[in-house]
Amino acid sequence: MIDDDSLQELQSLIQGVVKAQTDNLSEIVKIAGLNPTEDFAGADLRSTRLRGLVLSDADLRGANLNAANIRGALLSGVDFSEANLSEADLSDANLTLANLSDANLNCTNLSRANLIRANLICADLSSADLRGANLGGADLSRANLGGANLGGVNLSGASLNGTNLSGVNLIRANLSRADFIRANLCLADLICSDLSVANLSGADLIRADLSIADLRGANLSGADLSGATLCGANLGGAILRGVNLSEGNLRGANLKKAKFARISGICEKTKLDWIRRGAIFEDLADTSFKECCQC
Fold first, then answer.
1. How many angstroms separate the Cα of 233 from the Cα of each of 50, 181, 191, 192, 215?
2. What is the spatial order of strands in the sheet that 239-241 belongs to?
3. pTM score, two decimals?
4. Which Pfam families does UniProt cross-reference here (predicted)?
5. Alpha carbons 99 and 120: distance in angstroms, whole number
């Protein structure tokens, strides 16, 4: 049972919050004497209005922020590991260096958010809106991005090893120098995307659309590009050893100095055409000339 002194202290605290006439959580935190680096772990903040919040380096591990409005908030360095941020609005938020590992970000609005060097390992970003977000240098290894919208996103230097990107929209995305080792990009829309010097070794690119994509210097060793569209793509200097190109479409692609070896799914006519276009076949004797893909 609460004693008189504690009750008086609580009433004084409530009056202070009411008098402040603010819905800014950071101000309320100061009035209440709370420590944001310690007192919010596991908190229930569902549907809370936190727009413009300033809570850098706060501890929100395991917090429930489902459907919360956190638009434009300053959350750099915040620990959101295992937090529930599904359907929350984090558009325009600053989440640089934030820890979002194992977080639930299903259907979350992260459009134009700053996620530079954020930790998103094993995060669920399925159906999330990441249009125009900055994820430069972020770690999204083994994250689920199935059905997410990443149009115009910056993922330069990001790690997406083993990540599920099946069917995602990556039109005009900056993916230069990003790691997509063994990533699932099946049916992904990569039209006009920048994949220069990206590592796509072992990636699943079945029926992906890479039309007019920049793949200069990219490593596609062991990738499955069966049924993929690379019309007008720039593959100058790219490495394509052990690639499956059956039913692939490379019409109009720049193949100058692209390195091929142990390729499956192409015929002799196609190989000769690619050589004329500047491609380098490192193992002429071992090249498999099976069903012809579209040149």
1. 44, 20, 9, 8, 7
2. 239-241, 259-261, 280-281
3. 0.83
4. Pentapeptide
5. 7
